[in-house]
Design brief:
Helix content: 40-55%
Order of helices and strands: HHHH
Mean pLDDT: 85
Radius of gyration: 29 Å
Strand content: under 5%
Number of helices: 4
Structural class: mainly alpha
Number of strands: 0
Oligomer: single chain
């Protein structure tokens, strides 16, 4: 993918042109159009969807499929595993437990 770099672009952005100032409109070249086409087509095909000239929803479907696949590959973590990881990280830091704090009489914690 690349930003438009054809004659008439302004900072790699399209412009309509302005005859009063002499600014030409951006010329759209085949290389840019092909780059955009292939980026979109590769996303659709990469999601396992066959390109279909009669469908205007394939990119949306492909993005949904790619997100769905990514979410399915996430390894779920249980609350118990989170608690165990926190306990392991805090082990040896001498941080008072909930039980210690509820019994605290206002003095210095040891």
């Amino acid at each position: 993918m690349h930003r438009i770099d054809q004659p008439g672009h302004v900072n790699n952005r399209f412009v309509n042109g302005n005859p009063e100032t002499g600014q030409l409109p951006t010329r759209v070249g085949a290389d840019w159009l092909n780059a955009v086409q292939e980026e979109i087509a590769n996303t659709i095909v990469g999601a396992g969807i066959e390109l279909d000239k009669t469908s205007n929803t394939q990119l949306r479907e492909a993005i949904g499929e790619l997100i769905s696949n990514a979410v399915q590959n996430i390894n779920p973590v249980t609350l118990t595993q989170v608690n165990q990881a926190i306990a392991a990280a805090l082990n040896g830091l001498n941080i008072p437990t909930h039980e210690t704090l509820t019994e605290w009489d206002g003095g210095v914690l040891s």
